[in-house]
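Standup notes
- HV: blocked on the assembly model, inputs below
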Amino acid sequence: SAVISQKPSRDICQRGTSLTIQCQVDSQVTMMFWYRQQPGQSLTLIATANQGSEATYESGFVIDKFPISRPNLTFSTLTVSNMSPEDSSIYLCSVPGQGASGELFFGEGSRLTVL
Amino acid sequence: LAKTTQPISMDSYEGQEVNITCSHNNIATNDYITWYQQFPSQGPRFIIQGYKTKVTNEVASLFIPADRKSSTLSLPRVSLSDTAVYYCLVAPGADKLIFGTGTRLQVFP
């Protein structure tokens, strides 16, 4: 299993500002995934962050809005830029398990409220 | 990636067995079926995974018919702490997992 720590756990932000969420994993992993979960909704994949290359974004998400860094195999950041109330969500970092079948481990999430 | 369909919600009482069925008609040959559990204010947690027939662990059982177009998560003797959202996913691995709407299970005393 993997232990994932996210910071901040929650924050209240003003419209137009940006916030960076950090994700630290206790083991080296090639892929890290960032998900968003809007209130009462399911999870939506934002992007895949691979160490040493640009993140791959899913449809509807762009790098200018959600820049991602992946400086090493245990750490990643997601920035939510120029926030609006529609960005109020839980942002989750996840990593795959070591097995071949594709279990995902998730952090506790970062709950952002944009006023 | 195969799309899944689950009931939006289910209610049960403590001590009962709960069966949540997921439809995945377009499942591919190399897809696994995986179930996750999510409590409020927490990230999803892996429960069980299978490819075919039946899989059982300390938490749940997963029943998969021969055609693999559906699967049933079985939770024996649920307790209040099993109140959560349960997600069924089908995919060949952990890359780009797509979460459906999930099933919100409410367990009553």
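- HV (later): unblocked. The interface with chain B takes residues 4, 31, 33, 35, 42-45, 48, 58, 92, 94, 96-97, 100-109, 111 of chain A (CB under 8 Å). The longest strand of chain A covers residues 43-50.
- Next: hand off to the docking folks.
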